[in-house]
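#lab-general

N.A. 3:47 PM
ok so I finally got the sequence cleaned up, no stray characters, all 74 residues accounted for. can someone with queue access submit it? mine expired

B.Y. 3:52 PM
send it over

N.A. 3:53 PM
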Amino acid sequence: LMIAYELVGDFAERVPAAKKRSPSLVVVDACHEAGLLTVPSGTHAIRWLPPLNVSAAEIDEAASILKTVLQKLV
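B.Y. 4:20 PM
back already:
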């Protein structure tokens, strides 16, 4: 069970913090601070690798954390 999210190509121009680091690392670090463990996949993608017994509620919580993180970065 794995899924990846690709960030837009101009992410570094939209998010000032991404000018010094790769966009995926900026988002991954912000997710970790918010309590969501993710891993970068290249410079513009983020992977989620949940366990096979993940619940729908946990997926909803992860999606909510990601949404909040991305809204704060912009």
